Amino acid sequence: MIENSMQALPSLKLSLRNSRSLIWPVAATLLVIWVLMLIMATPSAAADGFVSIKSLIGPHDALIVSDSKGRTIISKNKNKKLVPASILKLLTSLVALHYLGPDYRYATEFYLDRHSNLKIKGFGDPLLISEIINDIAARLSELIGGSAVINDLVVDDSYFNQPLTIPGISSSSQPFDAPNGALCVNFNTVFFKHRKSGYISAEAQTPLLPYAEKKIRARNLKNGRFILSHLENENTIYAGKLFQYFLKQHGVEFSGTVTPGRVNETEDKLIYRYSSRFSLTQIISKLLEHSNNFTTNQLFITSGLEALGPPGNLGKGVAAALDYTSNVLDIKNLSIVEGSGISRRNRISAHQMLRVLDEFEPHHRLMRKKGREFYKTGTLYGVNTRAGYIADGKGGLYRYVVMINTPGKSTKPIMRNLLKILE
Asked: Is 195 helix (H, G, I), strand (E, B) or coil?
């Protein structure tokens, strides 16, 4: 039996060899057919998806998408100038990085004059918040000494021109309408609540100062945020009073009042120069996360000041931004009147915004992230915009700009389809 089996092996081997010679060509043919079907089907599905997306872009809207190598995948109305809303903050961030540098830190200076007045000079720091003011007050208390009595607290906001009016800012009590200035605290807002016992602060770290409460009562406000205006130096005086409150908490005595004034750098003694604990990169990350108009325009004005010299004002910010877009980004024929996107007079095309994204790519992780997407949104009445990046799964980034200037429409259905196609 063994001999018979051994004799049968050559014929079995031949049979298997013949079977392989038949199976492999068939398998290979099927594989080629499957790959060809996949290749042919994918562009068709993508093409159908792009057609569907384009149908959502009306005459007052725009769209452009490019791959990681800068090749345009889809576009519609890409050169149409539209209202960008808050996606303009990406451009302002680039302008600030260009003129100030990623490690730039805002300063606030403190002086004593010969009349025992404490003077505070602001340089536009957008993040002078209560917790930081408390820390500064503790340090100043050590420097001034426990036995000293301060006369007036003088607040100097001359580093920015006043009045400083931002196009698009109204006189509402909403935080996005907070005015800008060289010496501002808590984003020029007071957060409060009304209880049966009266008004109280809505923030544990911030006292409700009598100065602010008087303003709130005069306006008969109930709850929310009270915006400090430039009228009668309201915002600057409030900043001084908040510094004074925390200084008193740390044992510094005052015999005078809070008053607007100027530092005399040749006669007054600089006792402390606070350098912000936040770098420009960290500030940009915060403003993109919260879409803070006040912070963005502080950077916008400071950039103009750095480029053209003090004092800071909106005109210099605009001039610096236009010079940057023209000479660095090679973008012409756009309209910028402020940096946050709150003004409808800002006009830029989707194609120009795509150029902004090209330049911002090294900083894209400063943006909000959801899944594979890094993004910035913009919203005004009748305006809905979105711009950012989508990871392509190969280490690259798609870039996209969606600008909807049609009332009642949203970027959401466009983004749903786009994310699905670019999976």
From this structure: strand
